[in-house]
Design goal:
heterodimer, A: 399 residues, alpha+beta, 4-stranded mixed sheet, B: 185 residues
Chain lengths: 399, 185
């Protein structure tokens, strides 16, 4: 597996390395522009310090911040046995040594994300909207996708790439503003520098305008690639691509937009939480996720659940000559030999929905009364009267 | 002098390569062990859940003596199994017996309304899933191990240090292949 993960990441790492070069170039030319000849190294040092501080902050705070912003609540097995079981199943399928912490977000928009620096301290979070809408098999597909992000170390990579792109955006912004308001000491020095100075100035301006755009495009390209890979890995875990496909379909049809997501956290989610699928919105180059109907079509056309199947299906659907799965992963593909006979079991969707409701009612301090007619009354904590009437049979209950 | 240096350099490279190959094999063998332990944990968990299930079901399904007995017998076969092949066959028998039990339980509405039974059913169904996912990962690991053991050049190292091909956890019992499709929805 290690060889496979390493190969999967190699191309992504090359792209991220290119972004790092961009950051250094930006620092160098910015420095040369603002501090004249010999200012390059200072600029590079400033750029690296900004980047380092941002990386360290993200590294040590990233997952906490994300879980806090989204208002996620940690749950254990007795709160939601089905969800816990599914996560445990996918942990086994992915061959990870430890079950990630499980969080639930009370939000009607169906979505899910994974976070954490290492597979050993990862977390997965799902919204209550997702739990209420999906069947067990579909939920399994979504969790498999998140587990794939954890196992493929995508969270690390995307965190790193995201911070890098962010540093470039900030530096370029500051640089452009600096130029706009007079460019500091550069003027006098540049005059004495002659032609070389003006070339540096042009390169610096071009870099400051183009670098942020380029950095973000690279970041988005890496993100989209990781999504395809996570879909493929999810299919090899569950051996049932239809589960994820129909989950994606349901999620994409849902009208709600996730309240707590920002563009920084978007690539962590199973589908882009910000943009609802508008068909022709330059969707490809400017999105963290591939178009969702394309992902669904690839999953539906793959048949069995191996990397080779996904790759073939990807080429068919996209009409591309080159696949998306790295050769080493295809070579190591053991699924054909190892595919077990799997019984499809699906618990009732209503049962999951009921458990989710109970969970949040309990967390919010609601009081439960079971009426003899079978109705369950949920009394809010600020309910003042000392009697409640059952809406179905009219029995009065003492509180 | 130069020739000797080049030769020494080559030696170092070759030795490093052999060491990494050896370490890779050791790592894989440990992974095979570890992933088997995961399968084993789940099989034991299922084994432990059975008495609880029987207790819950007994009162409702008194007419299904045969089905219930099959599960009890399968459990006894597991604890009595000697070698690995026998154990795997016994586990396969258990999967089949449980499948029948849950299929039959569909026609007992009282049983299906019992929350105790429902949570046990989810627990067992999930354990069944966990067994097959753990097995899936175990078989993948075994395949990578066996490829290393049998393919050139790593087979030379494997032969020298007694690394042997591991056995897949196949579904031995035909009964499991033919197990009824159960839909709990």
């Amino acid at each position: 597996m290690w060889e496979q993960i390493a190969a999967n990441r190699r191309k992504s790492v090359v792209l991220v390395f290119f972004t790092a070069l961009l950051l250094v170039a930006l620092g160098w030319f910015g420095g040369e522009y603002f501090w004249g000849r010999g200012g390059g190294p200072t600029g590079v040092i400033i750029a690296l310090v900004v980047w380092l501080v941002m990386t360290l902050t993200a590294w040590f705070q990233g997952d906490n911040v994300m879980l806090t912003i989204s208002g996620a609540k940690k749950i254990d097995k007795k709160d939601l046995p089905i969800l816990h079981n599914i996560v445990e199943e996918m942990t086994l399928a992915a061959g990870l040594s430890k079950i990630p912490a499980i969080y639930v977000i009370d939000d009607p928009a169906p979505n899910a994300f994974a976070t954490g620096r290492r597979p050993e301290n990862a977390s997965v979070a799902v919204t209550s909207g997702l739990l209420k809408r999906l069947s067990r098999d579909e939920l399994q597909g979504v969790i498999a996708h998140e587990m794939a992000h954890i196992r493929n170390r995508d969270i690390q990579l995307m965190l790193f790439a995201g911070v890098l792109a962010g540093a470039i955006v900030i530096l370029a912004e500051v640089g452009l503003r600096g130029m706009w308001f007079g460019g500091g000491r550069s003027r006098s020095r540049r005059d004495s520098g002659g032609d070389g100075g003006s070339i540096i100035a042009i390169v610096a301006i071009v870099l400051m305008i183009l670098a942020p755009i380029l950095a973000q495009l690279i970041y988005l390209a890496v993100s989209r690639k990781r999504e395809y890979l996570a879909d493929a890995s999810a299919a090899t875990f569950t051996r049932y691509p239809e589960g994820l496909a129909s989950a994606l379909e349901k999620i994409s049809r849902a009208p709600d937009k996730l309240g707590s997501a920002t563009s920084a956290t978007a690539p962590m989610y199973i589908i882009n939480p910000l943009k609802r699928t508008k068909k022709h919105m330059a969707a490809n180059a400017t999105s963290t996720h591939p178009p969702i109907d394309e992902r669904i079509r690839i999953l539906r056309a793959m048949g069995a659940g191996s990397f080779a199947d996904y790759d073939r299906s990807y080429r068919e659907v996209k009409g591309a000559k080159k696949g998306v799965i790295p050769g080493s992963a295809l070579k190591e593909d053991g699924s054909e030999a190892a595919a077990p006979v799997r019984e499809k079991v699906s618990a009732s969707q209503r049962e999951i929905a009921r458990q989710v409701d109970d969970l949040f009612y309990k967390k919010d301090g609601y009081h439960r009364i079971e009426c003899s007619c079978g109705t369950v009354l949920k009394i809010p904590p600020d309910f003042k009267a000392d009697e409640a009437k059952c809406p179905r049979c009219g029995t009065r209950h003492k509180i | 002098m130069l020739f000797v240096l080049i030769l020494a350099g080559l030696m170092v490279v070759v030795v490093a390569w052999l060491v990494s190959m050896y370490n890779g094999l050791v790592g894989l063998r440990n992974q095979v062990k570890e992933s088997w332990a995961q399968v084993d944990v789940q099989l034991k968990r299922r084994f432990d859940l059975i008495p609880n299930l029987m207790e819950t079901v007994k009162g409702y399904m008194s007419h299904e003596r045969e089905t219930l007995e099959a599960v009890t017998k399968a459990r006894a076969a597991i604890s009595g199994a000697g070698g690995m092949p026998e154990r795997m066959a016994a586990e396969g028998g258990m999967t089949a017996a449980l499948g029948r039990l849950f299929a039959v339980s569909e026609s007992y509405p009282d049983l299906k309304a019992s929350t105790n039974f429902l949570s046990l059913q989810e627990e067992l169904a999930s354990t069944e899933n966990k067994i097959s996912f753990a097995r899936q990962f175990y078989n993948e690991t075994v395949m990578r191990m066996n490829n290393k053991v049998q393919m050139f050049p790593s087979n030379i190292i494997a032969g020298m240090f007694n690394f042997t091909a591991e056995t897949f956890f196949e579904v031995e019992d035909e009964a499991e292949r033919a197990a009824p499709k159960v839909d709990f929805s």
